[in-house]
Every structure is written in structure tokens, then in C-alpha cells.
Amino acid sequence: MTLAAGPGEADVWILRRPWTGGPEHELDDRERKRAGAFVHPRDRARYVSAHVALRRILARYLGVGPADVRFGRAPCPRCAAPHGRPVVLDGSPGNVPPPHFSLSHGHGVALVAVASVPVGVDVQRVPSAATVEVCSPRLHVRERADLAGVPPERRPAAFARLWTRKEAYLKGLGTGLGRGPAADYLGDGDAAARPDGWLVDDLPADPGYAAALALRGSDVHRVSLRGLPEGWTRHADPAAVARREGDVMIVDDGFPNGVAEPI
């Protein structure tokens, strides 16, 4: 069955540890080269797991095999060179435009967001107080003021929520951190001061983590969290796994209020 993210909808797919790697023949030459460059087997398995998952998820939207998904880059919004957001080059059957997507992985969880509009997703572990102190000067001046008003014991979690929003937005924009983190306000103090034309908000996350989703537009009315079963990336027939009742969890709710299930 081919999946679709319709207007006003976004799907966020969740893949947790253990990182088991996956069939590297589903990756392209660039991805295999990148995987081979990792020194630690754990890092290689994490990279392969995340990218096999990304290909298998997108293949369900495109109606092709995972190895047939072709990636490119959108023009950079800063200089128009071809190093902007990663994009799918081929559409679905019937000349349906390819979906937009975003991948984030690290510290035990990977997220893949799929939508009909430019999208960014990010997940991070809550940092130490020392890391917050070092990184806070990079924030927007109003974000620094907001953070200073948070009690010290809650500041790392508040910083993590803010930073994941910022990274999700910059991924969706296509600049990454090439656009300075201080350029945009994504704090809680004044929603009207946030970037025009984007919805950016937190996703529910496990204790010790923060996650966020950014979508271009203002008409989003449904976000689905879809959990992938353990070992999904190493399974020989991922479509069969996904079809089994109970293996894929779908939660629908309004955005930006979020969903009830944690990541």
C-alpha cells in the first residue's frame, strides 16, 4: 500500500534503539561510503539504521523499492547553490509530486518526518547545565532573556526544547546552522515574533529528550506519530512487518498542541 501525506498533514516516524544496522545494498554509493568512514561499529550501525529506515519509509510514499529512492538537494535559500534541503528527485505514480522529508537521529532515537510541504524535525538529548551555559550566547537575544527567567534546575530542558525547534526550523528552511542561531526567535515569550509562514512546535518526547517539528504554512491540522517495531531495519520484508496489526502505532491530533504518545 502506498502511503500519502495530504494537505495539512504530516507523519513523524519513530525508530528507537537498538541500532541493528540493515541491508546496505538498499543505500546508494554516497551513503555506503559515508557508512564505511565510521570507525566505531556502533556509529556505523546507527547511521545505516537511520538511512535504511528513511529509504524504506519514503519508498512507501513513492511506490518504489528502497534502493530506488533518489535524493538530491534543493537550492540554498541563501545563495541558490544546490546544497539546500535534501529532496526526493522522483514523484509517485500518477505524477504526484514527491513528499518533503526530514531526518534526525542520535542518542538512541531516530525521527523521519514526511509532509506535502517543506518540513524539518529534530530530536536531542537534554544537555548538561555546562553545555547550556556555553551554547546560550548563540541564541537570539530575546531567547536568552526568556531562558534567563527559567529556574536553573529547569533550564537544560527549556534550552533543549528551544534548540530542537531552532534546528527543525533551519532544516525545513534549508540553511541548517549556516543561518546563525541568533537570527530567528523561536521562544515561548511571543508567538507573534516567530518566523512568518512557519509552524514550529514541540513534539512529545521521552524523559531526558526534546523533539520538535517545523512545517511551512499555516493550515496544518493533523500530525501522526508512527512507531516502527524493533528490528524493522534488518527485517527482510519491511512492508510485511508494517502490515501486521499493532506493529505501527498511529496517533492523530491537532498541531501545534501535539500528540499524547511520547517519542
From TrEMBL:
Residues 118-179 form the 4'-phosphopantetheinyl transferase domain. It comes from the Bacteria. Keywords: Transferase. The keyword Transferase applies. The keyword Metal-binding does not apply. Pfam families: ACPS (PF01648). SUPFAM superfamilies: 4'-phosphopantetheinyl transferase. Belongs to the P-Pant transferase superfamily. Gsp/Sfp/HetI/AcpT family. This is 4'-phosphopantetheinyl transferase domain-containing protein. It comes from Actinomadura meridiana.
